Amino acid sequence: MKKILVAVDYSENAQNALNYAFEIARIAGAELYLIHAFYPIMSPPAAHSAADVTQALEEGKGRSLLEFAEQTRQNLTIESGEAGRFSGVTIKAFAKMGGSYEKILEAIDRYTIDLVVMGMQGGEAVSQALLGSTTISVMQKSRVPVLAVPSGLTFNQFATIVFAINLSKIQARADLRFVSDFVKTFKANLQVLHLYRNETQQQTFDATYPLQLLTEQFKEIPYTFNFDVKENVAQGIQDFIRTEKADLLVLIPQKHTMLERLLDKSVTGRITAHPQVPLLALPPATLHPQVTNPESMVTQGQL
């Protein structure tokens, strides 16, 4: 994890996400890439070409974004009381005219980003409205992991990470190196959670093969397998997070349906309650790397 992209719209949520990203970059030794997407307030004067005006706007807003990042670095350093705490974090800032969703995805490819950090609103429940349509869209389409940080949440290390996964969807070519490397970087303990919807699933599903695959991929990190029967998967995840006092929840939202289920109040999608935890969404292709078109993949079972 060498390059972290942070989407900045100058809201309180974005500011908090940037604060969080600074800490992650400091520990991981990663560079910070900041992206600000915007639309011009008015059309360019007739004497100037649209391209020239766009370039001037992007350069000007890019400089402002870099100043914003440097001010954030200074503020965080003062708050920490540790001189030079973030001095090793390299910052690059870019402003692009266009929609946030499109420009974030473009930046991921252009700058070979390893992780995207975005903000989300606070509240007891993480509903779709609270998470934000842009964040959800990026999670569904990004080829790299996306970390959504609840507003007001201060970074406090990742001691315990919960990885909620449907073992029946793991294939031989599944690639979970990001999870393993992330756990090693933060010296965390990984709790792998598989939930059955009913006892029939529990009795008929043979987890031997997927457990062997995970054991091989997680051989360099401390981990524990956890199984339970919960008709309401979202509630089961919430309960487990609370019991384990988790600092991070990792999911693989294979398609739109999964996020809808987990984030919809009608199915008790309160997956991060008191205290809230960040949500790390892995790319859909994590479990199906041989599939090139995520849209053609099936939804991830009970999750």
TrEMBL record:
Domain UspA: 1-150, 160-282
Family the entry assigns: Belongs to the universal stress protein A family.
Protein name: Universal stress protein
Organism (species): Pontibacter burrus
